[in-house]
Amino acid sequence: MSGRGPTCRRPDTAVLRIDRGWWTLVAMSDMPSQPSAGTPLPAGSSSTVSDRPAPGRHWIVVAVVALAAMLVGALATAATLFAIRDDQPQPQHRYEVRVRLDLAATAEQKTVVESALSTRYPADAIRTESRAEAYERFKELFKDQPDLLESVRPDSLPESLLVVTVGRLFDCAALAAVKGMTGVDGIIVRQLAAVGRPDAVLLNCP
Questions:
Q1: Labelling 50: which of 25, 29, 110, 152 has CA 20 to 30 A away?
Q2: Which of left, alpha, beta for 92 (phi over 0: left; psi -120 to 50: alpha)?
Q3: Order of strands across the sheet that contains 7-9
């Protein structure tokens, strides 16, 4: 007599299995079709219950796809923001370059300096401020200091070469070669006044 008890089958509903005093009731809809131990398999069949992927692996795939979609969306948004920013017009500023000449600078030295400036700025944008013009500007700047005005004479102020240029930023390095030329006493660069900024700003160009 076999050790396995009889199996009572309810039609299309459940299997009631009696096995050495233990019994289980398994719904057929939840119970995969699997042969019992010792039962030979049909020819060409496999002992694997199901070829479907495990549920855990399915959720991992879904999570990876969702994360990739989020990254693609973030990159697309960033690219759009950069494109919008690049399309917006950048503010332009006006800069005044003043190349102050030595008091003893010769006309030839002045011409060489002016020629060097013309390689960096349009020649028609370069003008000369004479000593007389420099003195008039000095008197306007220090009109509230009469003692200082009495101590300065027109011949004590040098000539200057002036350039007004427009740009978003100013390149101080472009003037490095001019600053070291013979006949140049110094260079002053100012960002001129504009709407919302009534005062000029002195740039710290080396």
A1: 25
A2: beta
A3: 7-9, 14-19, 22-27
* CB 160 within 8 Å of CB 132: no
CB-based burial, 19-58: b 16+ in 10 Å, e otherwise: eeeeeeeeeeeeeeeeeeeeeeeeeeeeeeeeeeeeeeee
pLDDT surpasses 60 at 48: no
Nearest by Cα to 12 from 34, 33, 28, 26? 28
Token digits of residue 57: 């692996």
* Segment 152-176 mean pLDDT: 92
pLDDT digit string (tens) for 10-42? 444 444 444 444 434 444 444 445 555 555 555
Which ranges in the chain belong to alpha helices (H)? 55-87, 107-118, 131-141, 146-150, 176-179
CA distance 155 to 135: 8
Residue whose pair of structure tokens reads 């299997």 in the numeric block: 15
